[in-house]
Amino acid sequence: MKLIDAGFGNFVNAERLISVASTESLPIRRLIQDAKNAGRMIDVSCGKKTKSVLITDSDHIICSAEEPEEIAKRINER
């Protein structure tokens, strides 16, 4: 299992990730809201502004305060 830092000492299994997206678009914000309503959203931003969304193969949405480019860099480092 390959873990990556999603910010503030929280780690995510990189092998389960499907996508890393920015929160700029309306469809991604809708995706976050739908996941929140369904109980599938995990917020690891520690109260900071959400800058990236990690989408897993189990339909969970992980909101992070890290930039998407930084998350992608951490995934590609390994």
Polypeptide structure, described:
With 78 residues, the protein is of the alpha+beta class. It contains two helices and six strands, in the order βββαβββα. It has helices at residues 26-38, 68-77, and strands spanning 3-7, 10-13, 17-22, 41-43, 52-56, 61-64. The strands form two sheets. It has a four-stranded mixed beta sheet, with helices on both faces. A two-stranded antiparallel sheet has the order 1-2. The longest helix is centred in the middle third of the chain and has 13 residues, at 26-38. It starts with a strand and ends with a helix.
Short description:
The chain is an alpha+beta fold and 78 residues long. The chain has helices spanning 26-38, 68-77; strands at 3-7, 10-13, 17-22, 41-43, 52-56, 61-64.
